[in-house]
Amino acid sequence: MTPSYDQPYRGGFVGPEHRFALTVYFEDTDTAGIVYYANYLKFMERARSDMLRAAGIDQRATLEAGTGVYAVAEANVRYLRPARLGDDLLIISTVEDVRAASVRIQQRVIRAGETLAEGRITAAFLTPDGRPTRQPRDWVARFEEIRAATKDDE
């Protein structure tokens, strides 16, 4: 099968883990070729957004319908080792906790099996005017399915 170079890369689930691969480009680094610390948050954001898409959660539709949107309410990142220009990275995301109006996602940035950074992100579901509200029930159910798969693997 010939790969399609006209389609964007998509990650996907391997069991309970969502996997998203990317390469470190020059724009991601400082002059020493080391990834700038804030760019790890960008890498994690791309992976989380792709995870939601892979889980069947359509953020764009709810945004356009005026129902609500996710916003990061809390972000904790622990940096362990630097990523460098040209590195191939894997971001692994797992659902850690689901509440009526939020979801907490654990993320790891990995290079060749070595964890470079760990993040724990809480995304709150907000109304268009910025107030917390219950996220769609089918989204909560999907997150619970993913979380249950995580527990089954332990």
Automatic annotation (TrEMBL):
InterPro entries referenced in this protein's UniProt entry, alphabetically: 4-hydroxybenzoyl-CoA_TE, HotDog_dom_sf, YbgC/YbaW
Entry annotated with the keyword Hydrolase: yes
Question: CDD domains from the entry?
Answer: 4HBT
The kind of enzyme this is, by top-level EC class, is hydrolase
The answer, when asked if Methyltransferase is one of the entry's keywords, is: no
Looking up Pfam families in the UniProt record yields: 4HBT_2
Provide the E.C. number(s) assigned to this enzyme.
3.1.2.-
Molecular function GO labels: fatty acyl-CoA hydrolase activity
Query: What is the protein named?
Result: Acyl-CoA thioester hydrolase
